[in-house]
Amino acid sequence: MSASPVSFSLSGDALNCVRYVGSFRELVETPFEGMVNAICWKRELVGDFDEIVSVIGELDEITTLEEDDLQSLDLSEPGAVARDRLIEDLALLRGAGLEPSLDCIPGYPRSAVEGAVPVDVYDFHADSATEPMDTYLCSYTVACSEGARNADVQRYVDFPHVRAAVLAEYGGEDDAGFLEFLRERFYDLHYRMRAGASAYSFGFGNMWRIATLCPGSPVPPCIHRAPTTRPGDPARLLLIS
To answer: pLDDT tens for residues 127-148?
Structure first.
């Protein structure tokens, strides 16, 4: 199934789900409320983050970078400035009681299952948790994560023809067992952009806190996706918790 064409917007109604803040403390402490399910600490970072990826070299799989890995890199002055920023960002999240991961990503695995619902992170999806929890992330190189207003997407399994196909896969009735089947396979967390709707870019260097589907959340989850990168692109540098 091919998704509807997606355009991008950074202003107006497309961002009524986003609140901007001016500090890390505000990022952590500002509550989700109303239509806001994404909070952005907007920043313009200095330093050469691309150099860090270049010095690390070609990767075959997602590689998590620890502070020692960063310190071992032989970098120019702009590269060293970028390294210090990455170490500071890791420290900020850890200081807030989080467990961040700085990942160098040549590409994410694609869904191995050919079905009516794509279930990889390149498709619009919601993060979920069994206890109150938010997702933090920051894109530094190559391409940025993308978000969508909840009104601009629809779950794949709510399209009648998709639900019928998944019911056939399930082999039963549309009952409580079927809903559990959807949850087990994460089919209920993936969304398709509505025709004519606009996504928004998370941008480089901005640190985001986005709502997940979890108990007690006062707002719907933030619908987002990883950007599609081209074969041969450098690895993407992403901080996530």
So the answer is: 999 898 999 999 999 889 999 9
What average pLDDT score do residues 178-198 get? 91
What beta strand segments (E) does 71-197 contain?
A: 101-105, 134-139, 146-148, 153-155, 191-193
Q: Which is nearest to 223 in space by CA: 197, 190, 198?
A: 190
Non-local (6+) Cβ contacts of 81 within 8 A are 46, 47, 48
pTM comes to 0.87
Block residue for tokens 């992403």 = 238
Pairing of strands 38-41, 18-21: parallel
Alpha-carbon distance of 90 to 240, in angstroms, equals: 9
For residue 177, give the 3-state DSSP assignment: helix
Q: How far apart are CA 5 and CA 223, in angstroms?
A: 17
Rg (CA), the chain: 19
Q: Which two tokens stand for residue 67?
A: 């502070």
SS3 175: coil
Give how far Cα 228 sits from Cα of 142, 221, 222, Å. 10, 22, 19
